[in-house]
Amino acid sequence: MAEDGFVPPSASDFFFNPIFGNNILFTKPVLLVGLSVVLISVFFIASSRKAAIVPSKLQFAGEGIYSFVRNSLGEEVIGPEFLRFVPFLFTLFTFVLCNNIFGVIPLLQFPTMSHIGFPIALAIFTYFVYHTVGIRKHGIVKYIKDICFMPGVPKYIYVILTPVEFATYFIIRPATLSLRLFANMFAGHLLLLVFTVGGEYLLTSTILMKALSIFSFGFAVGLSFFELGIECLQAYIFTLLTALYIAGALADEH
Amino acid sequence: MTGTMAIVGFGLSTIGPGVATGLVFAAYINGVARQPEARALLQPIAFLGFALAEALALIGLVLAFVLK
């Protein structure tokens, strides 16, 4: 046999060697993030050049993505003051979407959001934005008072409501925002690894196992399409939750 | 019988999100069955509920792999 037993993929498969030289920072995920920024910029600059009244296909695609974020994620969720948040929401959406889709593209095949640093950075941006918006609109004293002591509630409920609300707004929201994206991408990539590496291991075994490896590879292909759907959904959910938190900070009274 | 407690813990933690996903989509199907025009209106809400419920199951899966 080629290997002594099957070595299942684990968290160590997510670490990469540095590409040039010895510094630990320049690895494949960093390269992929840079590539995603270049790709997004080139696509949207090319789609908005020579903007005509009757759009070409590229312009139609670019405008479609922009109007999806602006209308269904900006205007419907945030309300009247949505225009100044559209650049932020649009950047979040396209960045997360492009990096997620790298998980199923044949040569790249690594969703960079499965390294927890990237979702944490994005969640920190969201955290600062919705708190700053709330503090600028209401003033810091009234903002914290509205979070901790929600108006319109009987006084004795504050004993249990205040710690829960405080923890939610300051600790749980950024944590779950980043963990949700990270866990989805990590689990998806791990699933694809299991079926692909498992199929490859079956190929080195007896003839019956070689026939069964077709099912493993077939599953890997099917799961890739499912993974594509999950990736688009997670990009949408991240941006939708950001918009909802901003809308909650802008709202006047509960 | 050998194994790890991590996988047992993950298996137990998927009960809640499984029930939650079923409830969310049952409500969506009921809503669309009563009023088919509401399909596009209810769809974002259904997907939001599903993603929030699934987040906990996936956090369990990740912790089962990371903390052995």
Number of helices of chain A: 7
Mean pLDDT across residues of chain A: 87
What do the pLDDT scores of chain B average to?
88
- CATH homologous superfamily identity of the domain at 21-66 in chain B: F1F0 ATP synthase subunit C
Strand content of chain B: under 5%
Quaternary organisation: heterodimer
Query: How can the largest sheet of chain B be summarized?
Result: none
The run of helices and strands of chain A is: HHHHHHH
Fraction of residues in H or I helices of chain A: over 70%
Q: How many helices of chain B does DSSP assign?
A: 3
The CATH architecture of the domain at 21-66 in chain B would be Up-down Bundle
- Point out poorly predicted stretches of chain A: none
**Largest chain interface and its two residue counts?**
A-B, 18 and 13 residues
**Main sheet properties of chain A:** none
Helicity of chain B, as a percent range: over 70%
Instruction: Please state the structural category of chain A.
Output: mainly alpha
CATH topology term of the domain at 21-66 in chain B: F1FO ATP Synthase
Give an account of the 3D structure.
Chain B: Keywords: ATP synthesis, CF(0), Hydrogen ion transport, Ion transport, Lipid-binding, Membrane, Transmembrane, Transmembrane helix, Transport. Chain B: It is a multi-pass membrane protein. Chain B: Pfam families: ATP-synt_C (PF00137). Chain B: It is found in: Membrane. Chain B: The chain crosses the membrane at residues 6-29, 41-67. The complex is a heterodimer of chains A (254) and B (68). Chain A is mainly alpha-helical and 254 residues long. Chain A has one domain (14-99, 114-250). In chain A, 71% of the residues lie in helices and 0% in strands. Chain A contains 7 helices and no strands. In chain A, α2 (57-78) crosses α7, α4 crosses α5 and α6 (158-203) packs antiparallel against α7. Chain B is mainly alpha-helical. Chain B has a domain at 21-66: F1F0 ATP synthase subunit C (F1FO ATP Synthase, Up-down Bundle), CATH 1.20.20.10. Chain B is built from 3 helices and no strands. Chain B has helices at 5-13, 15-34, 39-66. In chain B, α1 (5-13) runs antiparallel to α3 (39-66) and α2 packs antiparallel against α3 (39-66). The longest helix of chain B is centred in the C-terminal third of the chain and has 28 residues, at 39-66. Chain B is elongated, with a radius of gyration of 16 Å. Chain B starts with a helix and ends with a helix. The A-B interface holds A 10-11, 72, 176, 179-180, 182-184, 186-187, 190, 233-234, 236-237, 240-241 and B 44, 47-48, 51-52, 54-55, 58-59, 61-62, 65-66.
